Amino acid sequence: MKEEIFNSTNEGLQSLAIDPDVLAKELEAELQGDPLDEIDVQGSKADKTKILNECQLGLKWLEQVHEERLQGLRVFCEHRDSRAIPLLIPLLSEPSPVERMSAVYALGRNPSPLAIDKLVELLETDGNAYVRKAAAWSLANYSNSPVMEPLIRALHQDVAAVRLWAASSLAEVGSISPDKSEIVVSELLLSLRIDQEPLVRSNCIWSLGRLYENLRESLRSELTDGLFCILLNDVEPSVRDEAKIVLDQIKDNKVASRLKNLLDKGVLF
Questions:
Q1: CA atoms within 13 A on the CB side of 244
Q2: Domain for residue 265, yes or no?
Q3: What is the average pLDDT across 78-86?
Q4: In which region does residue 266 sit, left (phi positive, over 0), alpha (psi from -120 to 50) or beta (all else)?
Q5: What number of CA atoms fall less than 13 Å from residue 220's CA on the CB side?
Q6: Which candidate, 83, 60, 62, 65, places its Cα nearest to that of 9?
Q7: What is the distance between the alpha carbons of residues 104 and 97, in angstroms, rounded to a whole number?
Q8: Among 220, 159, 213, which residue's Cα sits nearest to residue 186?
Q9: Once rounded to an integer, what is the mean pLDDT over residues 175-181?
Q10: End-to-end CA distance of the chain, in Å?
Q11: What is the pLDDT of residue 245?
């Protein structure tokens, strides 16, 4: 019976095998949302049984050689299972960038305090931008750990793909407390003014919208002033649109009045 389950699960997971070239192309495209949102946390009993079988096979794969490990990593990039954590953490030090990158994503879906120091180290020092990008994404799931300063440095200093995810992850870090919110918002506003990459500016705007409610009144005003400046002056239409979306969502009479005034004057359409 166990052999039948193994064979059936193995056949169902063939599509999970990782082609490094394909994976690199996938990672080059900017993700539009948090992949964790795709997990069905309810699920039917049959689904849970299938996932359990997949995870069992994934655990077996993680203890094998390179190609099998890649298949196991793909399993735990999709599913959560605490049994995988002791097998995933050592893979953060693998010579293969694809293995390191996949292990980082897997530990984003399966967070563990034991992984935090190595994830921060990879964000700050790994020579592969795909690995650093994965670390910037995964650290959003470690927002109670000391990750704010490394993410801020990445936001200001790294390549665009890493800055993009650092901006998004900082929204989670800032939401932990009002004090952190204020620090993060100040850094995001700075990047919003100076970053040359439209997608990074858009993600800064998204994160600022997430943090608005955590702020004291004076910093709320600074945030909305910054967004109105972008709305009126940014050269990229998609960034201006993102600023308008966030401003529309802010429940404040002064903000609503300023938007209406711009619409009445024909400045906005």
A1: 17
A2: no
A3: 92
A4: left
A5: 15
A6: 60
A7: 10
A8: 220
A9: 93
A10: 65
A11: 95
- Span of 30-44, 45-59, 135-149 with lowest mean pLDDT: 30-44
Q: How many residues does the chain have?
A: 269
Other CB atoms within 10 A of residue 176 CB = 14
Tokens of 129: 């931008």
Residue 250 is encoded by which pair of tokens?
A: 């802010």
Residue with tokens 């293969």: 96
With a pLDDT cut of 70, the percent of the chain lying above it is: 83
User: Is 228 within a domain?
Assistant: no
Q: Which two tokens stand for residue 132?
A: 């650093």
Report how many domains make up the chain. Answer: 1
State which residues form the domain around 83. 1-14+47-90
What are the residue ranges of helices labelled H in the chain? 2-12, 20-28, 45-62, 66-78, 85-88, 97-109, 116-125, 129-138, 148-157, 160-174, 178-194, 198-211, 217-233, 237-249, 253-264
pTM beyond 0.90: the answer is no
Q: Which residue has the higher pLDDT, 56 or 40?
A: 56
| 33 domain residue, yes or no | no
Rounded-to-10 torsion of CA 211, 214, 219, 222: 30
Whether 54 is in a domain gets the answer yes
Q: Given this model, what pLDDT does residue 154 score?
A: 98
